[in-house]
Amino acid sequence: MTDIASKVREHYSATNLTDRIKSALATIALEDQTLTVAQLAPLDQFHTRGILATAELAAVARLESSTRVLDVGCGIGGPARYLASTFGCKVTGVDLSPGFIDAANYLTDRCGLSDRVAFQVGDALHLPFEDEAFDAVFLQHVAMNIEDRPGLYAEVRRILKPGGRFATYDLVLRDGDVVYPAPWARDASTSFLLSEGDTRTMLEQPGFRVILWRDDTQTALDWFKVAMAGAPPSGLNLGVVMGPDFAARTGNLARNIRENRLGVLSSVLIRD
Ligand SMILES: C[S@@+](CC[C@H](N)C(=O)[O-])C[C@H]1O[C@@H](n2cnc3c(N)ncnc32)[C@H](O)[C@@H]1O
Q1: How far, in Å, is the centroid of ligand 1 from the Cα of 140?
Q2: Residues lining ligand 1, judged by CB closer than 6 Å?
Q3: For residue 254, is pLDDT > 70?
Q4: Is the entire prediction scored with pTM above 0.85?
């Protein structure tokens, strides 16, 4: 594993995560009750606009029950479970963090989705799959932790079938310095944001054709306004995963977007 991957893994390391999630879940359901994807959404959709963003991207990616999907940098598996339960497709999630994969497996079992959703530890730059193994790839709020973007996009292309869809949801650099600590990095040493133009060039270069390129910055700002004006989040939130200062780091993300330091971008591409 590279130094950067080790540092990123360290950033997302979470001691006793599955046990902490079990305790948080006890506030909403008994241990033998089946949970729904919607119930878990405040906890397990680790990106701006949460489950709404996953649902919008999935609608454009045209998933069906026969689609084989890979979620790269799957976190604790919320997006993967959403895709499998909504479209009936089989989803594999891969993530650098063993603690996240353990929690993802636990939550998937609690949702009764283990027959359709599987997870494994792995690096996005060295995906542990054969060439052309998947019909669709999701990558939500992960690219900003990856310095070798050409390597990342070439690797995604390698494991996609020709004509396969690549759905990405990214933060992009706008104007001025990014304020840290942020949810994905405590400082610039594990943050590798690109401008929108550079992101597009790097995506198209290995052989992807854009079918959706949408600036979601204003939508994200509107979402943050509502989220931050509301009551404090219940016991089930991303603070369980990322620790007590997560609210402050999310506040910095909202500030970066509000002050036009960062933009929010959705895209769907077809592999040539
Ligand atoms: C902000 S979270 C997003 C998680 C998930 N995509 C979601 O939207 O709920 C970023 C995730 O990317 C993972 N990640 C970062 N760099 C990675 C890499 N090189 N390979 C695999 N996963 C990586 C982290 O471990 C973390 O789980």
Answers
A1: 8
A2: 5, 8, 12, 45-47, 73-75, 78-79, 95-97, 100, 123-125, 140-142, 145-146, 184
A3: yes
A4: yes
